[in-house]
Design goal:
alpha/beta, Aspartate Aminotransferase, domain 2, four-stranded antiparallel β-sheet, binds pyridoxal-5'-phosphate
Length: about 450
C-alpha cells in the first residue's frame, strides 16, 4: 500500500468533488487522517459515513456478554440524553433544574439503600460520578481522611493506613489503594470460595485500618459478599471499623430481587456505598453514584466550595466538567420504571441466568455463580471433568467468537490464578431467545472442538 502522496494523481483529479456521493469522493479514495490534523475540511456526510464505516469493525455491544454496562435504552431516554449532553452539570447556577434532578436521584437512592432518618429527613448525602470507580476513589479518600483526622485528634501516628478487601475486588480498588498510599490487606479467595471470608476479614482489623470493602456482586462470579456477617462480627467485637459496600452492580439488583437482604445503611457500620448507574441502573456509560451514611462521614476539607460559576456550590469529585445528560437519563429510568419496572426486569434476568446455568450444567460445566437471585444475574462457569476436554476455556471463547459472541475466558482472582473460567453477564437485552441461541452455539462449539481433538488424535496414531 502506498501513502496518500503516492496515490496516482490522475485518479484523484477524476474523483467527484461535490461529495454528495460519499464513496465517489476523494476522501473515500484516501486513507483516513490518523496522525495529523488534515489541512482541509471535509463535508459532514462524508466524515460521518467514513467514521461509521470504521466503527463497523467494533464488536456488537449486544453480543458482548463480557460487559456489565448497559447496551439498551428506550428511544425517549436516548432523546433526553442527546438533548442534554450540551449541559455541563458543574454550572449549578446555569442549570439549576439539572442539579435538582441529581438531588432527586440521590434522594431516591438514599431511600432505596435505607438511609437513617433524622427529623423525617434522610441523613445520607452523595454525588453523581462518572462510574463506580470514581465513586470508590472518593469513598476511599473519605475513609482515609476521617481515619487520619481521628488519629491526629488522639495524638497518634497516621502514616500507615490500610484497607481490608477480598482478593476478588475489581481493579479500581487496587488502583485506589496505590494512588492514595494505602496498604492493601487482602483476604484470599480459595478454590471453593470466591468471596470474602468475614471472619478472616475482621481478624485483619488493626488500629491502622481505615475500612473494610464488601462487594455486593463480585466481578468474577456475581456473588454477594456477606456484608451482614462482617457488620455483626465488628459489632460483636465492639469495633467501629467502617464498611464500604461496593454495590456497583448489586445496588440496582438486590433491592428488587432480595428486598430482605441486609447489606446497606440498615447495618450500623456501613458508612458508604457506590453503585453504577450504567450497569443495572440501566443507563449508558458513564454514570455512577457515591453515597455516605451522613455528612459526618465526609470530612469537610475534601469538599470544595466553588463560587466563580455564579453561586456557592459544594463539590466533591475527581473531575470538574461532565454532561448533565447521564444524570437526566438516570432520572428517566428511575421514574419510568419505578420499583415494579426494575423488579420485573431483574426477575426476567434472574430467570434467564438460572435457565442458562441449568443448560450449562447439563453440558457438564461446573457452575461458579449462585442462582435463584442469591447473586447477580451472572453465570460464571468452567469446564468440568465429565466433559473430558483437552481444550481450555480460552479455546471455547475463541470458537464462540466465530459466531459473534463475546464470552470472555479469564483466570480467577489472585489466589486461584490457575483456575480458568468464563462468564456471561445477563443484561436487559439478553432475552430468552438470545439465550437459546447462545446455548445452541455453545453446544455446537463444544462439538466442533471435540471433533478437532479427535482428528488430532487420529493423526497422531496414524
Ligand atoms: C464495574 C465494577 C466497578 C467499577 O465500576 P465502573 O462503574 O465501571 O467505574 C467496581 N466494582 C465492581 C464490583 C464492579 O463490578
Amino acid at each position: 500500500m502506498g501513502s496518500i502522496e503516492q496515490f496516482p494523481k490522475q485518479f484523484l483529479s477524476q474523483v467527484n468533488s461535490d461529495c454528495s456521493n460519499v464513496y465517489g469522493s476523494e476522501f473515500a479514495a484516501r486513507q483516513r487522517p490518523i496522525q495529523k490534523l488534515p489541512d482541509r475540511e471535509m463535508p459532514r456526510n462524508v466524515a460521518y459515513q467514513l467514521i461509521k464505516d470504521d466503527l463497523v469493525l467494533d464488536g456488537q455491544p449486544m453480543l458482548n456478554l463480557a460487559s456489565f454496562v448497559t447496551t439498551y435504552m428506550e428511544d425517549e431516554a436516548l432523546k433526553l440524553l442527546a438533548e442534554s449532553s450540551n449541559k455541563n452539570i458543574i454550572d449549578h447556577e446555569e442549570y439549576p433544574k439539572s442539579v435538582e434532578i441529581e438531588t432527586r436521584c440521590l434522594n431516591i437512592l438514599s431511600d432505596l439503600f435505607h438511609s437513617p432518618v433524622s427529623n423525617d429527613i434522610p441523613t445520607a448525602i452523595g454525588t453523581s460520578c462518572i462510574g463506580s470507580s470514581e465513586a470508590i476513589m472518593l469513598a476511599v479518600l473519605a475513609m482515609k481522611k476521617r481515619w487520619q483526622d481521628n488519629r491526629k485528634a488522639e495524638g497518634k501516628d497516621s502514616s500507615s493506613p490500610n484497607i481490608i478487601m477480598s482478593s476478588g475486588v475489581q481493579v479500581c480498588w487496587e488502583k485506589a489503594a496505590r494512588y492514595f498510599d494505602i496498604e492493601e490487606k487482602l483476604v484470599p479467595c480459595s478454590e471453593t470460595r470466591y468471596v470474602i471470608d468475614p471472619i478472616q476479614a475482621v481478624d485483619l482489623v488493626d488500629e491502622n485500618t481505615i475500612g473494610i470493602c464488601a462487594i455486593l456482586g463480585t466481578t468474577y462470579t456475581g456473588q454477594y459478599e456477606d456484608v451482614k456477617a462482617i457488620n455483626d462480627l465488628l459489632v460483636f467485637k465492639g469495633l467501629d471499623t467502617p464498611i464500604h459496600v461496593d454495590a456497583a452492580s448489586g445496588g440496582f439488583v438486590a433491592p428488587f430481587i432480595k428486598p430482605n437482604l441486609e447489606w446497606d445503611f440498615q447495618l450500623s457500620n456501613v458508612v458508604s456505598i457506590n453503585v453504577s448507574g450504567h450497569k443495572y441502573g440501566l443507563v449508558y456509560p458513564g454514570i455512577g453514584w457515591a453515597l455516605w451514611r451522613s455528612p459526618s462521614y465526609l470530612p469537610k476539607d475534601l469538599i470544595f466550595n466553588i463560587n466563580y460559576l455564579g453561586a456557592d456550590q459544594l463539590n466533591f469529585s475527581l473531575n470538574f466538567s461532565k454532561p448533565a445528560s447521564h444524570i437526566i437519563a438516570q432520572y428517566y429510568q428511575l421514574i419510568r420504571l419505578g420499583r415494579s419496572g426494575y423488579t420485573s426486569i431483574m426477575q426476567n434476568l434472574t430467570s434467564t441466568a438460572d435457565y442458562l446455568s441449568c443448560q450449562l450444567r447439563e453440558m457438564g460445566f461446573i457452575l461458579m455463580s449462585d442462582s435463584n437471585g442469591a447473586g447477580l444475574p451472572v453465570v460464571a462457569f468452567r469446564l468440568g471433568p465429565t466433559q473430558n476436554a483437552f481444550f481450555d476455556e480460552w479455546a471455547l471463547a475463541r470458537k464462540l467468537r466465530e459466531k459473534g459472541w463475546i464470552v470472555p475466558a479469564y483466570t480467577m482472582a489472585a489466589d486461584c490464578q490457575t483456575m480458568g473460567m468464563m462468564r456471561v453477564v445477563v443484561r436487559t437485552d439478553f432475552s430468552m431467545a438470545r439465550c437459546e441461541s447462545l446455548v445452541r452455539d455453545v453446544q455446537a462449539a463444544l462439538g466442533a472442538l471435540a471433533q478437532i481433538e479427535l482428528l488430532n488424535i487420529q493423526r497422531y496414531h496414524a
